[in-house]
Known about the structure:
About 20% of the residues lie in helices and about 50% in strands. Strand 7 (about 90-100) and strand 8 (about 105) form a beta hairpin. The chain has a single domain, classed as Sandwich (Immunoglobulin-like). It has helices at about 1-15, 120-130, and strands at about 15-20, 20-30, 35-45, 45-55, 60-65, 75-80, 90-100, 105, 110-115. The protein contains two helices and nine strands. The strands form two sheets. Strands 4, 5, 7, 8 and 9 form a five-stranded antiparallel beta sheet that branches. Strands 1-2-3-6 form a four-stranded antiparallel beta sheet. The radius of gyration is 17 Å and the shape is elongated. By secondary structure, it is α+β, with helices and mostly antiparallel strands.
Amino acid sequence: MKKFASFFxxxxxxxxxxxxxxxxxxxAKSENESIIVExxxxxxxNVNYFGLLRKNINGEYIEIKRxxxxxxxxxxxxxxxxxxxxxxxxxxxxxxxxxNNNEKSYSREIYVTHNxxxxxxxxxxxxxxxx
Length: 131
């Protein structure tokens, strides 16, 4: 029992436990016209998928990308290139961790202030109208 307790304390020190996964890190940053979202796992057990969710401050979450699990000790990265096309400046991201038994859990929310020039934002909106 003592070994298990020590292992559990070490685990909590280095990662956060969700159903099916232990996340080592979950972060995002504004970079040019994109937002880079990254996370690392220590353990992935029975994970069906990771869903990357995004919303603006007053909005509802939408899934912007779904990732198949790679296995324990994996690194994931996503470049959100659609963020500059909106008038929003602050975006909120979280992960949905879905297990094979239909159980789901959610990571903490991370907030990103996205600084894109108004010229770039306007040009992105104009291009989107003609797609």
